[in-house]
Amino acid sequence: MSKCIYSLLQTIVMLTILVSTMGHTSELDLDRIIREALEQNPGLSKLKHRWAAFEARVSQAGALMDPNVKFDLVNLPTNSFDLDSTPMSGRSLWVSQQFPFPGTRSVRERVAKHASDVAEAKFEDRESTIVNAVKQAYFNLAFLDRAISITRDNETLLRDLIRIAQTKYAVGRGLQQDVLKAQVTLSGLKDKLIRLGTIRATTEARLNLLLNRSLESEVGRPEKVTLTAMQYTLEEIQQAALEARPLLKGLEHSVLKWRATERLARRQVWPDFTISLGYRQRAGTKDDPVNGADFLSIGIGMNLPLYKGRKQHHQIVEAQANIRMAQSQVEEAKQQVLFSTRVAYLEARRHLEEAELFETAILPQAEQSLESAMTGYQVDKVDFLTLLNNQVTLFNFEIDYYRHVTGHEKKLAELEAAVGRPLFQTERSW
Fold it and tell me: Pick from 430, 247, 233, 251: which is nearest to 341 by CA?
């Protein structure tokens, strides 16, 4: 009798799993949605265009000012307005070009180039952030789907246990409190399914937001999640982060930008030059000593930085303060990277060790305990509350196991985001 009931329970569980998987036929491929997020995410697109705008400023910064062209009617007599009445009158065309002090243009271009490098680093760092956010949502969905599946399986088993308890109570071999306790536990599972479903819908909407899809779109079920081996030491990961993290590179370029800005401010103490070329067309008169020859004029001018004590000097002081600020930002960011990688690494190790403990010891022992209690209950050697407690315990252990598996993968994703590039290769799946 006990073997038949146990076989019936197993059949019900398998049918429940089959029905639950039929509702989600499409699989969610992690690599594909990462590519989609990098192509479609509007926040990332905004930074990409911002970088392009900064890049377009580089050639502008090194270019000369536009030349000036001026046309004059010179010494026009007001009594006749006749340009041919006097040798002093004429038509003049002037062209002038400003030339910054030698080396200034290259320094300006360098400032713009470092600003472009900062924008590029922010774009690349946001790419890593987007990839991490997609992975976090993906692994959350993987855990939630497995938790919902386990909860539904246990709901089915619990319904069958209630029927068994009701049957035994009807023939005088059970207690009414057993039935009531099982019904309370079943109601708790229904409440858990409601909460898990709400969390899944929210997580799905968050993933759609990252993918720039409609928030109501169904994303499907994640593929099998793999438990990834930890291939690096903490020191190796931290060293890689300090060398490759785009955030740190961007802050270092910011230091270089302000140093170039300081050099530019020092060069602006020296004057800029303006070269002018003019041509005057004249009409000849009988008393003109040069017989109406046209005139050619060449001139050179410069600005006088007389107020450098109030202007250029303070530009230098401002740039030096910004250099120190940027250097402090670099050191602060490095410390934050070292801290975040240490925390993520330790958490990943904890999840890995606990997942292995659940897989090798806790879950097998809980399954054996439940099977023994099931057999004992059929022959009245184990009370119903003990059987129910063993079932609930196994249910909680299964969910905790998958929480540690996905938690481990989420922490590895955080480590990759901290470094700014992929680090890990998958090894085995659950």
Answer: 233
